């Protein structure tokens, strides 16, 4: 994927939180461009990565700075939450349809699109199941299908594999990369927040490394490696070591 | 008489359903607004807390007179009856919705914001399903409480004026007054049947899923029809709202003021008697209040103690056997719905020799059920399977079981029940301490009796003052004694 065309431009983003008695600066003057690429935002826990993601999603407002989407229309944003965040009283299909209904898509059409998204993540057979009947990995797949159902321009991933067992996480990682590479979904960009260095190197085209709170951009690392990548490849090992040196 | 009885039954049922639907509506909007908006929460939470524990029966004659004065006996009487029933239904429903929505995982809110769910969809997909369990469980308590208040709502006297609305409550009241045993028996039988039917067809099957109690085999299919009807009606409402793209959020703030409606009527009632008569009698009524209050205080706390002594052993047995659980819950629903007016003629033979027994009975009727249902319906849900298994594996039995497993698991529900029950007991004092039906007249003294006598005299200024003093005392006791005690006990024993 080339990063020639800028999809999203972030300039001078800052954010403070008020806690009783004082203000805490979480994001300190963050600027970067996102092209048609898979970006990983890497930083220690609690540094403000998730806040950054929420600001991009439009759920939180920055204190200063601008976010500009260069897509030509109101961006459709898919969001994969850290925990599956499924409504326990709705079936897998119902949960996946929800964002479509919210956009005013009629029920029949929404059902079709949700089914397509569920097929993409391999859950076509499970649409009538309730969340508590699924394993952790399957729930996270529904979370992903829900984000894909609205055919997003930009996909935001908030540490999506951190609550899964290592084997399931590994499988899901390569599936997400495949979804991105094969272009079955008209995605322009993926932004993933993570604290896992290896994950960032294995999946992304570019890593943006943030400092501990308040978060500033420490370094950007371009990952020019061919896919599929494996953790055993010496180039991968070298990059992981390099990135670690910036983190610590 | 049959025709009369049928009309009376239908009228009472209509009043109950109207009040219930209104309460449901108020509970949903107020509960959600309180859970989602800090400003609304800060304002309404303390106010509702007070309204819940205040003796509404004491204020009611004033509301009624005002409404009848302004709207005429037809509409005014009907409206005030429905308002009174609502005031006995709505509080725990509001708190139920509030607690359910408040305890929602915050990530669900994030999800709703990220995908910009419009308000009707949020309501349908998130808030209503999240509070469904608590709405249904609370509806059982409320529904019973509504029947209990029905007679008070249908027959009200203020001074020389008596307002009666056609209904089962007034039917039974009239029959008792006339000494018409046949009509009385017919009225009471129909009342029992209606209560039992609505419980068995509606509420019991609805809670079965959440309590694990038993459902009657024949009832299941008819309940499924009700369930389907409710579900499709709800879907229709949501669809219509989605199509209209209703922008409610602006209006929600206004809707949350609905529960304050009775309060505003009381306040406008406070302006009715001239201020000079008010201030002149201030010390007079205060003295009367202080003179009478201590008897009532003792009776209220004795009632709470007895309520605990009845509820705990029964719930202990219900954990052991599902059959006992089902019988205890059905019996509770039935007994708790029986209006005080029905008990009086039944208790009449002993009323002359043991008037205190009759009084205490009415007290219990107004308070016991809050403890009972909180423990039986909510409490037993806390008795998680793994805790029970733990007890079985390690052979925890007898008093050790009661002390180390049963009580701590139930404690949150016991405390919540006691708090509501104390409000109920204060309210019941008005019905319990002064009873005048037909030839029977019992006056046991106390604040409740004082309020009744002031109402009979048509002394609305005194009535309002005494009711206000009583409310003030209750709120003070709640804040200074109970809530502190609960907090201390709660933090020590609550198991999550």
Overview of this structure, please?
The complex is a heterodimer of chains A (248) and B (496). Chain A has 248 residues and is an alpha/beta fold. Chain A has helices at 49-57, 92-102, 107-120, 136-149, 166-182, 197-203, 234-247; strands spanning 8-19, 22-34, 38-42, 64-69, 77-80, 154-158, 189-194, 206-210, 217-222. Chain A has a 6-stranded mixed sheet, sandwiched between helices. In chain A, strands 2-1-4 form a 3-stranded antiparallel sheet, covered by helices on one side. The two termini of chain A are 30 Å apart. The mean pLDDT of chain A is 91. Chain B is mainly α and 496 residues long. Chain B has 2 domains: 1-272, MetI-like (MetI-like fold, Orthogonal Bundle); 273-496, MetI-like fold (Orthogonal Bundle). In chain B, 84% of the residues lie in helices and 3% in strands. Chain B contains 19 helices and 4 strands. Chain B has helices at residues 2-36, 38-53, 56-102, 106-114, 119-154, 168-178, 181-211, 219-244, 249-255, 261-270, 275-280, 282-320, 322-337, 340-351, 355-382, 385-393, 398-432, 447-457, 460-493, and strands spanning 155-158, 161-164, 434-437, 440-443. Chain B is globular, with a radius of gyration of 23 Å. Chains A and B meet through helix 2 of A and helix 4 and helix 5 of B.
Write the layout of secondary structure elements.
The complex is a heterodimer of chains A (248) and B (496).
Chain A: E1 8-19, E2 22-34, E3 38-42, H1 49-57, E4 64-69, E5 77-80, H2 92-102, H3 107-120, H4 136-149, E6 154-158, H5 166-182, E7 189-194, H6 197-203, E8 206-210, E9 217-222, H7 234-247
Parallel strand pairs in A: 3-7, 3-8, 5-6, 6-7
Antiparallel strand pairs in A: 1-2, 1-4, 8-9
Chain B: H1 2-36, H2 38-53, H3 56-102, H4 106-114, H5 119-154, E1 155-158, E2 161-164, H6 168-178, H7 181-211, H8 219-244, H9 249-255, H10 261-270, H11 275-280, H12 282-320, H13 322-337, H14 340-351, H15 355-382, H16 385-393, H17 398-432, E3 434-437, E4 440-443, H18 447-457, H19 460-493
Antiparallel strand pairs in B: 1-2, 3-4
Helix pairs in contact in B: 1-2, 1-3, 1-5, 1-6, 2-3, 3-5, 3-10, 3-17, 3-19, 5-6, 5-7, 5-8, 5-13, 5-15, 6-7, 7-8, 7-13, 12-13, 12-15, 12-17, 12-19, 13-15, 14-15, 15-17, 17-18, 17-19, 18-19
């Amino acid at each position: 994927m080339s990063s020639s065309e800028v999809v999203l431009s972030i300039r001078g983003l800052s954010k403070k939180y008020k806690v009783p008695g004082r203000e805490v600066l979480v994001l300190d003057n963050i600027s970067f461009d996102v092209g048609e690429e898979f970006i990983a935002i890497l930083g220690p826990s609690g540094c403000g990565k998730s806040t950054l993601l929420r600001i991009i999603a439009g759920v939180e407002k920055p204190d200063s700075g601008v976010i500009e989407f260069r897509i030509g229309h109101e961006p459709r944003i898919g969001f994969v939450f850290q925990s599956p965040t499924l409504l326990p009283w709705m079936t897998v299909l119902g949960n996946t349809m929800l964002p479509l209904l919210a956009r005013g898509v009629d029920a029949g059409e929404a059902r079709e699109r949700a089914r397509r998204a569920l097929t993409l993540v391999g859950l076509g057979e499970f649409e009538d199941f309730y969340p508590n009947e699924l394993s952790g990995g399957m729930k996270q797949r529904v979370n992903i299908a829900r984000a894909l159902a609205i055919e997003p321009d930009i996909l935001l991933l908030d540490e999506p594999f951190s609550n899964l067992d290592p084997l399931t996480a590994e499988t899901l990682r390569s599936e997400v990369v495949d979804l991105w590479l094969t272009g079955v979904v008209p995605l322009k960009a993926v932004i993933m927040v993570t604290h896992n260095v290896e994950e960032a190197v294995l999946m992304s085209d570019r890593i943006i490394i943030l400092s501990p709170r308040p978060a500033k951009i420490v370094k950007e690392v371009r990952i020019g490696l061919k896919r599929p990548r494996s953790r055993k490849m010496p180039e991968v090992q070298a990059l992981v070591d390099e990135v670690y040196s910036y983190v610590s | 008489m049959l025709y009369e009885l049928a009309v009376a039954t239908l009228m009472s049922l209509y009043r109950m359903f109207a009040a219930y639907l209104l309460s449901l509506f108020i509970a949903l909007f107020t509960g959600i607004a309180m859970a989602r908006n800090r400003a609304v929460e800060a304002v309404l939470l303390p106010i509702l807390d007070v309204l819940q524990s205040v003796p509404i029966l004491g204020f009611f004659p004033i509301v009624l007179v005002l409404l009848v004065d302004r709207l005429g006996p037809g509409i005014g009487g009907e409206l005030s009856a429905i308002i009174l029933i609502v005031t006995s239904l709505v509080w725990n429903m509001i708190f139920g919705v509030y607690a359910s929505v408040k305890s929602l995982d915050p990530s669900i809110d994030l999800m709703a914001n990220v995908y910009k769910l419009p308000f009707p969809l949020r309501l349908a997909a998130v808030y209503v399903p999240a509070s469904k369990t608590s709405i249904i469980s609370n509806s059982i308590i409320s529904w019973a409480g509504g029947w209990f208040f029905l007679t008070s709502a249908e027959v009200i006297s203020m001074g020389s004026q008596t307002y009666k609305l056609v209904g089962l409550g007034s039917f039974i009241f009239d029959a008792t007054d006339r000494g018409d045993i046949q009509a009385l028996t017919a009225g009471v039988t129909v009342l029992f049947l209606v209560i039992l039917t609505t419980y068995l067809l509606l509420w019991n099957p609805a809670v079965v899923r959440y309590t694990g109690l038993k459902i009657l085999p024949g009832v299941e299919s008819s309940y499924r029809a009700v369930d389907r009807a409710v579900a499709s009606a709800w879907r229709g409402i949501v669809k219509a709202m989605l199509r209209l793209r209703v922008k409610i959020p602006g209006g929600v703030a206004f809707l949350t003021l609905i529960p304050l409606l009775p309060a505003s009527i009381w306040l406008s009632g406070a302006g009715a008697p001239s201020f000079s008569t008010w201030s002149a009698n201030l010390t007079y009524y205060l003295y009367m209040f202080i003179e009478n209050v201590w008897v009532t205080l003792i009776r209220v706390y004795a009632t709470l103690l007895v309520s605990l002594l009845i509820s705990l052993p029964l719930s202990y047995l219900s954990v052991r056997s599902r059959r006992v659980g089902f019988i205890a819950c059905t019996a509770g629903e039935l007994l708790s719905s029986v209006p005080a007016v029905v008990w009086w003629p039944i208790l009449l033979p002993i009323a002359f020799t043991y008037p205190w027994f009759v009084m205490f009975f009415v007290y219990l009727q107004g308070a016991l059920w809050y403890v009972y249902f909180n423990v039986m319906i909510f409490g037993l849900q806390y008795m998680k399977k793994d805790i029970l298994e733990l007890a079985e594996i390690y052979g925890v039995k007898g008093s050790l079981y009661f002390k180390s497993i049963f009580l701590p698991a139930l404690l949150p529900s016991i405390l919540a029940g006691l708090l509501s029950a104390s409000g109920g007991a204060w309210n019941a004092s008005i019905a319990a301490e002064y009873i005048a039906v037909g030839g029977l007249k019992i006056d046991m003294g106390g604040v409740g009796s004082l309020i009744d006598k002031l109402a009979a005299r048509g002394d609305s200024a005194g009535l309002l003052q005494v009711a206000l003093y009583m409310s003030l005392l209750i709120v003070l006791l709640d804040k200074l004694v109970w809530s502190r005690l609960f907090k201390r006990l709660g933090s020590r024993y609550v198991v999550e």
